[in-house]
Amino acid sequence: MAINPDKQNQSLTSKSIMALKWNYLGRLISLSLQFTIGIILARLLGPEPFGLVAIALFVQGLGNLFAEGGLGSALIQGQNISDHDIRSVFSTQILIGMIMSSAIAGTAPLLAAFFHEPNAAPVIMIMALSFTLQAIGQPAMR
Prior knowledge:
The protein is mainly α. It has helices at about 5-45, 45-70, 70-75, 85-105, 110-115, 120-135. Helix 1 runs antiparallel to helix 2 (about 45-70).
């Protein structure tokens, strides 16, 4: 029994649309939670401490642009992925995370001076650990 190509394409299209809807819903929920947490933090911390956290989050966001590097995306798109490939990408991501953590923590005083807020340096140093922790959270095996 042959499958009708039009029906198969329609099925793929409907699955793609459904996946896109779920993706947008997940992103909307994530942004809503971030916004809500930001409001709560601003109310609890006050303007000055919240500003320090905002500076650290800004630095972390910029660092994430470099830390991700697209290795995970490249791995997913591979036709034949071996355990060696997965372990290599995992190890590389941990190494990049550690380098990013060290670089951001080491330059925290300079970054704080750039923002004319010396109290931001310790917050940036603590937030710098997130690069290593995020890398460790990546899957290493199938």
